Amino acid sequence: MNKKIYKRVVLIFILSLLSGLLAGCWDQLEIEDRALVLGLSIDSVPPDSKTNDDQTTHLKSANINLPQIRVTAQIAVPGRVPLGPGSGGEGGGGNQNPVWVVEVYGYTLDDAMNNLQQQISDPRYLIHLRVIIISEDIARKSMDDLNDYLRRNPEVRRRTWLLVSEGEAAKFMNINPPLQRVPTLYILSTMEKAVTSGKFPADYIGVFWSADSKWGESGYLPYVSLHQEDNIMIKGLAYFSGGVMVGSTIPIEIGAYMSMKGINPGGYSDLFYADEFGPVMLKVNDRFTRVKVQFKEGKPHITYNLSLEAALDEHLRSDIPISSSHSLEKIEDIFQKRVIGIFNHLIEETQQAHSDVFGMGEYIRAYAPSYWKAHVRDKHDWEQQYSNLSIEVKLKTHIDRVGLKQN
Amino acid sequence: MQNWKQKYTSFKHKPARKESSAQDNRPVKPLDSSLESNISFIQQVFGEDSDLIVRNFKVYGRHDAAIIFFSSVVDQNQIQNYVLKPLMNVSSDLSEIPKDLKDLPDYIWSMTVQVTQGNRTKDLNTLASILLEGNVVLIIDGMDQALYFNLRKIEHRSIEQPQTEQVIRGSRDGFIENLESNISLLRYRLQTPDFRVVTAPLGVRTRSKVAVCYIEGIADPGLVQKVMRRLSAINVDGILDAGYIEQFIEDHPLSPFPQVQPTERPDKSIASLLEGRVIILVDGSPFCLIVPALFNQFFQTMDDYTERFVVGSLLRMIRLIALLFSLFFPALYVSIISFNPELLPTEFAVAITGARAGVPFPAVLEVLIMEVFMEVLREATIRLPQMIGGALSIVGVLVIGQAAVAAGLASPTTVVVVAITTIGSFATPAYNAAISSRMLRFPLIILAGCFGLYGVMLGTIVIVNHLLFLESFGVPYMTPFVPTIWKDLKDSIVRVPLWWMRSRPSFLNTPDPDLLANDIPKKHTDLIFKEKSEADE
Amino acid sequence: MKLMNSNRPITTIQVMAVIISTIIGIGILSIPRYMAEAGDSGAPLVTASGVPVAFLGCWFTAVVCRKFPNETLFVFSRRLLGTWLADIFSMLISLFFAFSAGITMRQFGEVCVAVVFKKTPIEVVILLMLLLVALSIRRNIVKFTYVHVFYLPFILLSAIAIILVAMRNVDVLNLLPLTGNHTTFSSFSKGTITSAGLYQGTFVIILLVPLMKKPQQILKAGTIALGIIGFIYVMIVWVTLGMFGAQETKLLSYPTLEAARSISIGAGLLERFDALFIIIWVISIFTTIFTNYYLAAYSLQQVLRHKDHRLISSFLLPLIFTFSLLPRNIFQVYSFASITAIIGLIFLTFYPLLLWLVSLIRNKGAISHE
Question: Which residues contact B479 (CB under 8 A, 6 or more apart)?
């Protein structure tokens, strides 16, 4: 009798628990019912322009004294991006826009996202957010809000690209490149291919955040601009100091930066005038760097020993032959002398801007911890001290090959 | 012969039988001295069965006698030539015929009737079952014993390739319904005197002959005992197929996973006998049961052994992958689409939304509907004759799937997933294991539909735990994976070369563990070198 | 020979598997953060330093169990300390493991709700897992080890796979200087204690020793198991720290998860590693809770002198569920967890020590006659 009652009680208990399952699959949401935000662009709004306050997250009288930002989101439209080759000109594939671009205003990023949700029907999901573009304005003013929101949100992955655009960022959301159906994916593949072909380091938002947190390094982001309406050009590095952008470089300086960090594969070529041989182009294929921290008179001195492997790409004056290893060595010498200028220029620029993108502080922190402990209290300290750091770059180049032409 | 109307009327008015003939423990009833009363007793037992034949004649021209038999189960030709003919021989040569009725049975048995099997009985009550087993009963007027001879002949089909287990390279004979032929298939492959066949009837009314076979000295006596004990506990009206026995002797009949392996192939049975297992054959069923059966047998076939070891190992791995696929793929699909689309690469995710836009159901319902439809299709094709069956399955999958996609009822990705799953489940060689994975797919899909990847993981843990706790005749089901027996892992997911497999599976507790003699070298190349060096000498 | 083995079927390797799969659980997600807070770039060192401290507890337990190879701790503690005292301690053990199971479930639920599900109530997530574990507990100890032995290769191989793939992204600079820039002795020792608090699962050997084939090897098994786990934890901290750097690791709530999400092998299907991570994560939590719950139920059964632990496990379910719902917000969860870990470390180190000392004093205990 006892066993029977016990069994019944347990059964009722378990059944009542299981009925909770019937209440629903709480998190179930079909993939086509989600609004997948693929790309975001964030611009600042000039203070005098009249924009409506949506009041989605606050009352008008709440007196939020923050500048407004304009967020443009690119949302994938289900059904318009087929896998595989679309069947001919079905539905005039080019005419139908596979993404939907929505513009909202808000005081903070989260405020703007809530306003966005207020306007679109499907719940927005940032799980496939691949590209975020911010205008130079915002980058120079304040990035804290952005960083905080994006870090807390579990949907945002650290492999997202954060780009700084020269000029208005929203324009990037409207490009219509012929090589890809979805514009954000085009931007994404531009950056990814840049990484694989050696044109840019793999500077995802996660890497940026790590660098930003470190005391001995400053973060940097890709600096892009729009050419001819549809082409994205990587214009350089936007380097940061104290959490805000303070300047940008030119493209060849990206190559210099990558050399100093020893990032492979190499992808930059250098055009220079090689005295007797005429103008010559060398393409750098491999980079190797060794960094040494020394102390001279109690002050740190960093030496970079770079060794590059290059190939001869172009030699304009074919009447002057380059056909012996002796001539190659001569070219190497000339190259080394000329190219040092680029490095030094870049270093000076960053030193003036108090932005240690190279991470030299990290080397000092790692190899000279006592000096670090004594002199550096926080990130700001180091950024100031960076400008007075003595740095030396020694370069060695080695030209392996000259291509398929003998002369 | 009466027509049916007359039979019907006489049936309606027959008094009900008080005693059922299905009782074994009746007292011994000795034969009456009068032939007529014995014959009428037997006829009473069988009512008006039209195949019970009573043939009266005179033995040696002197004594009244009768042979009784069931014409449907005996070979009448042999009765004529080897029983009636010699017994009816009236020749003056037969001076040694004993005059005393007491010695007559001995004389008939040793000098006259030229039949190989037979016996005698003094009990009338046993004659009923003796007759049913295909014996011809000889009763002589005045004799207190009845002689019976085994002249059983039943029509059966010829030996052909087993339908449910086809291999590329292996023998093509399979078991048939007749127990004798099955045992003969085993005997000619296993010509050792240690091969034991223990037969006994099972099933109160069907009294089917059940044979337990094992190799003495290799099979663990404890295991054989266990099998026999479980068989003896079966008390059912009828055993129609080996499957009935399987359900009675299993350790965990409620589990979806089979703990006994049925097979139609004699070579597989022999292989398992050599490992130390015990097999059970039933008269009337072409399936033989192998006990104990473990998880890793369900993706192994004879093909793995007859082919070379690289091929064999790869095939096994493919089958295992197919099994896992057919179990998990739809659930994973549902969980990724409905719950965790962040697990897909972005281009793929964006494109799948295109494939799914316009489908009115959530992914769970869609997958469930398609899966149920596939199951119905499979059941349907089993019953169709060969010619229509093949076409229907192809038509069913392609056309109906296409039509469903075009009508917007299903998305093409779902059709692909379901098709891959179905094909994967066909790759499992053991039919009953394939059924279990088919069944288990559905709870997993439902769990995936409620909780996504977490639900799939919970369901997987439930299934795996169940497998880990299962036992087959005292052997843990997942041996040799858990508990890990390194020696036996040689023949689980991979099959190592034959010259490395030196001992029988240790979980079977065989008294004789060595398969290969110790002087066979471990490396096959040594064998060849041995050959070469011997050739040189 | 076979007959004896069927009474003591657990091999040394199985014991190691049980210990390893029990301990690898909830800790791996946030341990890099605690270690980075304690030791900066010297976090791997801090992690490694926890191992010897944890080893003490394991040593005492192993030694005292080895002295009584035919009984579980609950039985011989009654002989050593007297029934009353031993029962109180066993009750405390049961309560502790129930609480530990509850807090672990809560932490697990928090991670799930933060990362995987957003709308599912955390109670459902916890309850489902608890039901699953409660159903699986109803078996004997031998089947208990089977579960651990089966899941261990998956957990280990996946952990190693993730570590290997993540190695590519490790920047050695993040790991220097070896002792960290701002470590003080107090922070280092705090980190050591935190690290040592993760290894409480070694207590499970009290259940296994009576059924081991060679109980003498229990110490060896425990040592090797601790070594392997310590290695894995150090590698995880090493890799996470190497990917992010100490300062960033201190900011992340679940650094290991972020690390798993950041790595990828090329584009295409292998792009997202966190699917693999979630799968392995659920399995490793399951094995941890499985052991904790089993210990709680078994010790309670010993105290109450009941026939077996199955009925008790059903009654423990609502208790553990309640424990898991006690903390009110995420920070309370962290504090509850660390307090539990410290209490467990102290209790589970000193109680076996006490038993051992008492056994030495009273000269009791068979010195391993086989």
Answer: B294, B485, B488, B507
Q: What is the pLDDT of residues B466-515, one digit of tens each?
A: 999 998 888 889 888 888 888 888 888 888 888 788 778 887 777 777 77
| Statement to judge: residues A242 and A268 lie in one domain | no
Are the C-beta atoms of residues B65 and B35 closer than 8 Å to each other?
Answer: yes
Handedness of CA C278, C283, C287, C292 (dihedral sign): positive
Q: Check pLDDT > 70 for residue A23.
A: no
CB atoms within 10 A of CB B139: 24
C-alpha B65/C-alpha B104 separation (Å) is 12
Do A331 and A359 share a domain, yes or no?
yes
Name residue A314's beta-bridge partners: A281
Claim to verify: residue A297 and residue A390 sit in the same structural domain: yes
Task: List the domain boundaries for chain B.
Answer: 20-150, 179-293, 327-475, 497-536
Q: In what order do the strands lie in the sheet with A269-274?
A: A269-274, A278-296, A299-315, A390-401
Instruction: Tell which residue, C344, C352, C12, has the closest CA to residue C193.
Output: C344
Q: Which CATH architecture has domain C2-362?
A: Up-down Bundle (1.20)
User: Do A286 and A210 lie in a common domain?
Assistant: no
Confidence of residue B93 (pLDDT cuts 50, 70, 90): low
Query: Is the CB of B350 less than 8 angstroms away from the CB of A130?
Result: no
Provide residues of A within 8 Å CB-CB of chain B: 21, 25, 27-32, 34, 36, 38, 76, 78-83, 125, 127-128, 130, 155, 157, 182, 185, 188
Convert the pLDDT of each residue in B311-344 to its tens digit. Answer: 989 999 999 898 888 899 999 999 888 888 888 8
C-alpha B297/C-alpha B433 separation (Å) is 10
Which tokens sit at C339? 């307090």
Q: Best interface-test mutation with C: which of A152, A189, A210, A290 has the largest number of C CBs within 10 A?
A: A210
- Residue A233 CA to residue C263 CA, distance in Å, equals 27
Per-residue pLDDT tens digits for B176-197: 998 999 999 999 998 989 898 9
3-state secondary structure of B58: strand
ipTM: 0.89
- B331-345, C173-187, C336-350: lowest mean pLDDT where? C173-187
Q: Which of B220, B451, B454 to mutate to test binding with chain C, by most C CBs within 10 Å of its CB? A: B454
The CATH number given to whatever domain includes residue A370 is 3.30.300.210
Structural domain containing residue A177: 31-54+65-79+96-248
Let me know whether A319 and A352 are in one domain: yes
Give the integer Cα–Cα distance in Å for C296 and C312: 9
Q: Tell me the average pLDDT across A371-382.
A: 85
Let me know if A195 is exposed, middle or buried by CB neighbors in 10 A (0-12, 13-18, 19+). Answer: middle
A149, A298: one domain: no
Question: What residue ranges do the domains of chain C occupy?
Answer: 2-362
pLDDT at A84 over 80: no
Of C120, C177, C244, the CB nearest to A369: C177
Measure the CA–CA gap between C316 and C299, rounded to whole angstroms.
12
- Tally the domains of chain A: 2
Say which of A28, A79, A82 has its CB closest to residue B339: A28
Same domain, A239 and A273: no
Cα→Cα distances C136→B467, C144, C150, Å:
11, 9, 14
Closest CA to A362 of C244, C184, C239: C244
The yes-or-no verdict on residue C369 having pLDDT over 60 is no
Among candidates C125, C314, C155, C123, which has minimal Cα distance to B458?
Answer: C125
Domain shared by A151 and A119, yes or no? yes
Query: Does the N-terminal peptide bond of residue B483 adopt cis geometry, omega within 30 degrees of 0?
Result: yes
Nearest to A351 by CA among A306, A302, A296, A291: A302
